[in-house]
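Known limitations

Files may contain more than one protein. Parsers should not assume a single record per file. Below, a two-record file is shown to illustrate correct handling: read the sequence, read the token line, then continue until end of file.
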Amino acid sequence: MERELEVKVLGMDFDDLKERVISLGGILISKEEQINTLIDSSDKPIKTYLDAYLRIRETRDLISNKEKTVITLKKSIDNHGLRDNLELTTDVGDKETMLRILKDLGFDKIQVGYKERTSYELMGARLDFDKWDPHTYPYPYLEIEVKDFKHLNEVTSALGIPQENISTKSIVQLREELKLV
């Protein structure tokens, strides 16, 4: 179980932001290709009883050449200034069997998205530069994980990120806004 405090930076020049991170001493920590499979139920959507979503993520790190597959229930705890999530994650040995189990339990909605993620560490924060396939989400964005709101302000101030470009929306909410769901 992991607690995560994060925001997304939307509507800014993706490459310029990456250059700012590097010029401030950002350390490259991973470069990944991901397959993210969102799972839900038509009869009883997770959102009807829990502010959360369920996903299976397959990750291949292009630096270490390591691969892993995990399933995560990502629950939103708070969404004021920072997106506060509780992530319940465990390894998955066989994705197809896991999907079959979930289908038999009534989770019949499956959405697959492909993402490239390049991650840096800067000022004690994790900065993930995310670019999805165009059918999942057509705009690249920066996701920033921090310790608290003060830490967020320090990082965004150092990077020159205006408050109006900061969002606490999840990828599911962003997709809903674009009617991609």
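...continuing to the second record:
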Amino acid sequence: MNLTPKQLKILQLIRDCRLARGFSPTMQELANELSVSKVTVFEHVEALIKKGALQREANKARSLSICEDAIIPDEANPLQFPLLGKIAAGRPIEKFAQDDKLNIEEIFAPRIGQKGGTFALQVDGDSMKDEGIMHGDYVIVERRETARNGERVVALLPDGETTLKTFYKEKDHIRLQPANPEFEPICVTECQVQGVVIGVMRRY
């Protein structure tokens, strides 16, 4: 995708704002961040929509979102992930076949059918510790808006908080399951999936 530096910055600002605050920035907030006019931001946003990078809901404020199959350049390098902040949970460490070397690129390279980019979050808390994820670990997240039962998701709750739990869609609600008996499951009628965990990293 051919993006200008300003267009790339707009995508990054929208992504980061949605993860941190649960909603997109306004045109004026984008203009303030970029030190340009609101008209200029509007022109860039329209160009990004035409390029298939952004989408928005008509007549709804803060409705800009990144298209699921759009890959932001800083999410495209399998050896370097943009660190977007902290998250409240995690997923278990995967076991890999023994080899002479550990190839990070092969482990976290785009999988078959993967459309979106990949980013990292640092775990803040121990609600998933029984699955091997500890406070301070880094989870690698594939950006997408849908999940299957049993997948670990970055979920935006109706109250605006973001958490990392195991996703289960049940009869009349969604259950976000922790892996620590000290924490209760979170049951909501709806939530917004922002990504699915594909790996975890830890530094000693």
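Parsers that stop after the first record will miss the second one. For reference, the second record is described as follows. The helical segments are 5-21, 27-34, 38-50, 104-108.
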